[in-house]
């Protein structure tokens, strides 16, 4: 995220497969992806399930407001 073109870009992570029993939680993903160390970017993790559509509109709504 150090490229000039990405300066100030919002970061959305869609945590898909949340319908599965061993899916990682949003806090676990934040740690694994190193999101807590990102400075200068708004980021958000949206739990989702693509087969049912759960969380997809919420994630896109966040991007629209970011």
From TrEMBL:
Domain of life: Eukaryota
Keywords per UniProt: GTP-binding, Nucleotide-binding
Cross-referenced Gene3D superfamilies: P-loop containing nucleotide triphosphate hydrolases
Example of a GO MF term: GTPase activity
UniProt cross-references to InterPro entries, sorted A to Z: P-loop_NTPase, Small_GTPase_ARF, Small_GTPase_ARF/SAR
Residues that bind GTP: 16-19
Presence of the UniProt keyword GTP-binding in the record: yes
Record's protein name: ADP-ribosylation factor
């Amino acid at each position: 995220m150090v490229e000039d073109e990405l300066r100030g870009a919002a970061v959305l992570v869609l945590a898909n497969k949340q319908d599965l029993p061993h899916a990682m939680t949003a806090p676990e993903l934040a740690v694994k992806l190193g999101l807590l160390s990102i400075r200068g970017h708004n980021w958000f993790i949206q739990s989702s399930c693509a087969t049912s559509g759960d969380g997809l509109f919420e994630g896109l709504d966040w991007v629209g407001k970011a």
